[in-house]
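The instructor's notes for this session suggest beginning with a concrete chain rather than abstract definitions. Hand out the sequence below and ask the class to guess, before any prediction is shown, which regions might be ordered.
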Amino acid sequence: MVKRDNVMAEPQLSVRSAKARDLAHRLARREHRSIAEIVECALEAYELREIGREPASEFYRRVSNEFGTDIDLEEVIRSDRKSDERL
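After discussion, reveal the predicted structure:
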Protein backbone atom coordinates (compact mmCIF):
# COMPACT_ATOMS: atom_id res chain seq x y z
CA MET A 1 0.00 0.00 0.00
CA VAL A 2 1.42 3.39 -1.03
CA LYS A 3 0.98 6.21 1.43
CA ARG A 4 0.35 9.62 -0.17
CA ASP A 5 1.25 12.95 1.37
CA ASN A 6 -1.59 15.33 2.03
CA VAL A 7 -0.51 17.81 -0.60
CA MET A 8 -3.11 20.15 -1.97
CA ALA A 9 -3.03 21.03 -5.64
CA GLU A 10 -2.00 24.55 -6.57
CA PRO A 11 -4.91 26.84 -7.49
CA GLN A 12 -5.21 27.23 -11.24
CA LEU A 13 -6.02 30.29 -13.30
CA SER A 14 -8.32 29.60 -16.22
CA VAL A 15 -7.82 31.88 -19.21
CA ARG A 16 -10.29 31.64 -22.06
CA SER A 17 -8.21 33.70 -24.46
CA ALA A 18 -6.18 31.65 -26.92
CA LYS A 19 -3.99 34.68 -27.56
CA ALA A 20 -3.21 35.11 -23.84
CA ARG A 21 -2.53 31.38 -23.45
CA ASP A 22 -0.21 31.29 -26.47
CA LEU A 23 1.64 34.38 -25.32
CA ALA A 24 2.10 32.99 -21.80
CA HIS A 25 3.44 29.70 -23.19
CA ARG A 26 5.79 31.48 -25.60
CA LEU A 27 7.17 33.75 -22.87
CA ALA A 28 7.55 30.85 -20.44
CA ARG A 29 9.61 28.89 -22.98
CA ARG A 30 11.74 31.90 -23.88
CA GLU A 31 12.37 32.92 -20.25
CA HIS A 32 12.76 29.32 -18.99
CA ARG A 33 10.12 29.97 -16.34
CA SER A 34 6.78 28.47 -15.50
CA ILE A 35 3.60 29.86 -16.97
CA ALA A 36 2.46 30.74 -13.45
CA GLU A 37 5.63 32.80 -12.91
CA ILE A 38 5.09 34.64 -16.19
CA VAL A 39 1.45 35.43 -15.38
CA GLU A 40 2.28 36.53 -11.81
CA CYS A 41 5.08 38.80 -13.04
CA ALA A 42 2.86 40.33 -15.73
CA LEU A 43 0.02 40.99 -13.29
CA GLU A 44 2.39 42.51 -10.71
CA ALA A 45 3.88 44.81 -13.37
CA TYR A 46 0.40 45.82 -14.50
CA GLU A 47 -0.67 46.55 -10.93
CA LEU A 48 2.42 48.70 -10.27
CA ARG A 49 1.93 50.62 -13.50
CA GLU A 50 -1.76 51.28 -12.91
CA ILE A 51 -1.63 52.03 -9.19
CA GLY A 52 0.24 55.29 -9.72
CA ARG A 53 -2.06 56.57 -12.43
CA GLU A 54 -4.18 59.57 -11.63
CA PRO A 55 -7.31 60.04 -13.73
CA ALA A 56 -7.09 63.13 -15.96
CA SER A 57 -10.12 64.75 -14.35
CA GLU A 58 -8.52 64.49 -10.90
CA PHE A 59 -5.19 65.77 -12.24
CA TYR A 60 -6.80 68.88 -13.74
CA ARG A 61 -8.86 69.49 -10.61
CA ARG A 62 -5.76 69.17 -8.41
CA VAL A 63 -3.67 71.41 -10.66
CA SER A 64 -6.42 74.02 -10.77
CA ASN A 65 -6.76 73.97 -6.96
CA GLU A 66 -3.00 74.14 -6.36
CA PHE A 67 -1.97 76.62 -9.03
CA GLY A 68 -5.07 78.52 -10.14
CA THR A 69 -5.94 79.17 -13.75
CA ASP A 70 -2.78 80.91 -14.99
CA ILE A 71 -0.14 78.19 -14.90
CA ASP A 72 2.65 76.68 -16.94
CA LEU A 73 1.12 73.23 -17.42
CA GLU A 74 4.33 71.78 -18.86
CA GLU A 75 6.21 72.78 -15.70
CA VAL A 76 3.54 71.22 -13.49
CA ILE A 77 3.74 67.96 -15.46
CA ARG A 78 7.55 67.95 -15.31
CA SER A 79 7.58 68.49 -11.55
CA ASP A 80 4.94 65.79 -11.06
CA ARG A 81 7.02 63.33 -13.09
CA LYS A 82 10.12 64.20 -11.04
CA SER A 83 8.25 63.47 -7.81
CA ASP A 84 7.09 60.11 -9.26
CA GLU A 85 10.69 59.22 -10.19
CA ARG A 86 11.77 59.72 -6.58
CA LEU A 87 9.33 57.02 -5.45
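Then share the key points. The CA atoms of residues 10 and 17 lie 21 Å apart. The chain has a mean pLDDT of 80.
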